[in-house]
Design a protein that fits this description.
The protein is of the alpha+beta class. 68% of the residues lie in helices and 11% in strands. Helix 11 (309-325) links the parallel strand 6 and strand 7.
Length: 336
């Protein structure tokens, strides 16, 4: 929270000085801009700031689309956050305007006072009035500056809280409710990012394992969907345990799961996939005193430079089909 708060303290004045609207899109982009984690984003924002007289919504939308994948769910979240960011922006503009007005009045009174003193024709009571006027305008200017500083401080805290909430809601939009694994939509987004990294670095290997529970329809038909859901949850926990934090585990749909492996050798991918299969086979799922045998089949594809997502997934899917045809409860590797 301290890091986010410090970042907000830098961001708000930066956006205000450049008259950049305080929106969730702009806040996210310039948050990453200050982090410096995306050189191309930094370059495009710098170009826009240098070339554009105003950082308009059209300019913001164009750059945002280049770097952030926003589906309908995330759009709703951003729209909701936008309304709340907007109220903060209005308050800041109003207080900044008041502060600038009071500063302008103070400067005007100060100039007039200097002029009168230079003329040297002020009487004692006129000098007293002049000093009183200067003191009054000074107090007003300082009060408005203090009020603006207080508002900036409060706004920083609110924006940090909104940013954390935005991250949380975005995460929720990427998670499958039942299994708590990432969903298919997020996997597709993350695959694009990994593909870009793979293309740029050229050294990091990328592999995919598609898992499909064997005879899952029979489990549902025999024991009911509540038991079927339990099997899905148990399976997802096993898959997540072997994927860890390094690799991406997701529920691909129905009883299908995917792990995207990053930076592993082919035999390591095969071994981890086999570990998932064996662990599920050995796991006892007991319903009303009776054990339910659960097995899973898997197909693996190793990324070939230059191929797109469809080709990559299709090869893993074909290998999965071969595993099913070979009697299920086994792992096959794409031969293409």
């Amino acid at each position: 929270m301290d890091f986010s708060y410090d970042m907000a303290k830098k961001l708000l004045p930066f956006l205000a000085r450049r008259r950049i609207p305080l929106t969730p899109d702009n806040y996210l982009m310039f948050y990453d801009y200050f982090l410096g984690t995306n050189p191309e984003l930094t370059r495009q924002l710098n170009d826009a700031l240098q070339k554009e007289s105003l950082f308009t919504p059209a300019v913001s939308a164009r750059i945002f689309r280049n770097f952030y994948d926003v589906d309908s769910e995330k759009a709703k979240v951003l729209e909701e956050m936008g309304e709340r960011f907007g109220s903060i922006s209005i308050s800041l503009e109003e207080n900044l305007g008041q502060s600038l007005d009071s500063t302008g009045r103070f400067q005007q009174v100060l100039n007039e006072s200097v002029s009168q003193i230079e003329q040297g024709h002020l009487k004692a009571d006129e000098m007293k009035n002049l000093v009183d006027s200067l003191l009054s305008e000074t107090k007003t200017a300082l009060d408005n500056q203090t009020a603006l500083a207080d508002l900036m401080e409060a706004s920083n805290k609110v924006i940090v809280a909104l940013t954390e909430e935005l991250k949380d809601k975005t995460r929720q939009a990427n998670i499958d409710d039942l299994t708590q694994l990432y969903n298919r939509r997020y996997m597709k987004q993350r695959f694009k990012e990994l593909l870009q990294e793979f293309t740029l670095q050229g050294t990091q290997s990328l592999s995919m394992a598609i898992f499909d529970l064997d005879r899952f329809k029979t489990i549902n038909d025999t024991w009911g969907h509540a038991v079927g859901d339990k099997v899905l949850v148990v399976t997802s926990k096993i898959i997540k345990s072997f994927a860890g934090e390094r690799h991406l585990a997701c529920r691909y749909g129905g009883e299908e799961f995917v792990i995207l492996f990053v930076g592993l050798e082919e035999d390591e991918v095969h071994n981890l996939t086999e570990c998932v299969r064996k662990k599920l086979e050995e796991t006892q799922i007991t319903i009303r005193g009776e054990n339910i045998p659960v097995t899973i089949s898997a197909g693996i594809s190793y990324y070939i430079p230059g191929e797109d997502e469809i080709a990559f997934v299709t090869r893993a899917d074909k290998a999965l089909y071969e595993a099913k045809a070979a009697g299920r409860n086994c792992v096959k590797i794409s031969k293409d």
